[in-house]
Design goal:
EC 2.5.1.25; 33% helix; Alpha/beta knot; 6-stranded parallel sheet; globular
Length: 232
């Protein structure tokens, strides 16, 4: 099993749990790495890539344990991705140190409309240092809470990505047409940072994940077709 930051964070979160975490579809036997049903496991398809850009996932509570989470797809493709559990009052020191690291240009990925007038908003990474994209990974409600209540991130610029297409993400219900999943935003960020090969690799991984995730849902047409075929 290839390790990455999200898998380690998931193991730490599970170790702290006082009761089993029961996500949707918890009765399905799943691969404990990709969290897909065993027959849809995509672990053997993983192809790590390299990029000048780096990602840091700040994940809300049980997010690392959800089969529908796409933040971990970034860590699958880019092994130097970092992941931290979000805390309003006790952020990990390693996260604070990372925000001050002079080797990178850290920025928070979030819609520009939520940034205050005093905050710098970028539409593309500045030239010079490699970009460090800090992504707030959770539901839309959770992400807004993290954005509002993370004072240790307030001094960082915000980068806002305009994705002028309908989201392919249908694993959870979006609250608005302009809301996208973590992996989709990361693909766009890699594109504008000119990490095109990494963007392509993550895009292919996301597409395959989405197909297999939906195929593993018993009410989805592709899953019904597969089950019918098996029963013939």
């Amino acid at each position: 099993m290839t390790e990455n930051a999200v898998l380690r964070l998931r193991a730490e979160r599970l170790a702290r749990s006082t009761r089993p975490f029961l996500a949707r579809g918890n009765r399905i036997r799943r691969c404990q790495r990709c969290l897909l049903p065993l027959r849809q496991c995509l672990c053997e398809t993983l192809k790590p890539a390299t990029a000048n850009s780096r990602f840091c996932l700040v994940m809300f509570d049980t997010e690392p344990m959800k089969p529908s989470n796409t933040g971990r797809l970034i860590a699958d493709v880019l092994p130097n991705t970092l992941a931290f559990q979000w805390s309003r009052t006790e952020p990990p020191q390693a996260l604070i140190d990372l925000c001050r690291c002079e080797a990178y240009q850290p920025m928070v990925v979030f819609p520009a409309s939520y940034a205050g007038s005093e905050r710098q908003v970028l539409s593309s990474p500045p030239t010079g240092k490699p970009p460090l994209f800090i992504m707030l990974d959770g539901t839309w409600t959770e992400a807004r809470k993290m954005f509002r209540k993370s004072p240790y991130l307030d001094a960082l610029p915000v980068i806002s990505v305009d994705l002028s297409r309908v989201s392919a993400y249908r694993l959870r219900e979006a609250h608005a047409d302009d809301q996208y999943c973590t992996a989709e935003v990361a693909i766009a960020l890699l594109d504008i940072a000119h990490d095109n090969k990494a963007a392509q690799a993550l895009g292919e991984h996301f597409t395959l994940f989405r197909e297999r995730y939906l195929a593993g849902k018993t009410h989805h047409p592709s899953a019904i077709t597969a089950n019918t075929t098996e029963n013939v």
